[in-house]
Amino acid sequence: MERSRGEVFVPEQYYIITGELTDHTLTFGLNEKVDLSLYTATGNMLVDSDSLSFVYLLDGGEGYTYIRFQEEVWPMLANVLEQDVNVTVTSEHGSSLELVDLKEELGYLIENIKGNSNYGEDMNQAVEKVFLTAS
Predict the structure, then answer these.
(1) Residues with Cβ < 8 Å from 106, sequence gap 6 or more?
(2) Which string of DSSP letters, residue by residue, matches 84-129?
């Protein structure tokens, strides 16, 4: 993929819109028809505190694609830390992909965000409410 000097690269981004927990699998659904067989799960995640989301990185060969977990799906995402489950993502295309190492990455990020003002007050409060409050 060639870019002109000074051109800003914006990765493809897909949003998780559903989540379903069955037996030992947590399956998240994407908002678009995308062939997930074209991607490799990296096992890496980022935090976007401006939009209150966790971002899982997929490698598409020519760059990364973002799978965004917005605050609305965090209660379902919290199951990853509470239970021993495999995590997969499916698209409206019908393809699916296991999101390897999501539990480890998410746990690390949650611990890093806890009490860390670098993520902003809104992110800290949202993470505490969903992930750090004893049920």
Answers:
(1) 45, 54, 77, 80, 81
(2) --EEEEE-TTS-EEE-TTHHHHHHHHHHHHTT-GGG-HHHHHHHII
The set of long-range contacts for 15-18, using a CB threshold of 8 Å and a minimum separation of 24, is 15/67, 15/68, 15/70, 16/67, 16/68, 16/69, 16/70, 16/73, 16/89, 17/73, 18/73
Pairing mode, strands 86-90 and 25-30: parallel
Please write the tens of the pLDDT for every residue from 6-64.
666 678 999 999 999 998 999 999 999 999 999 999 999 999 999 999 999 999 998 99
Q: What pLDDT was estimated at residue 93? A: 86
Burial of 132 per CB tally in 10 Å (0-12, 13-18, 19+): middle
Is the pLDDT at 134 greater than 60? The verdict is no
**How far is the first Cα of the chain from the last one, in angstroms, to the nearest whole number?**
47
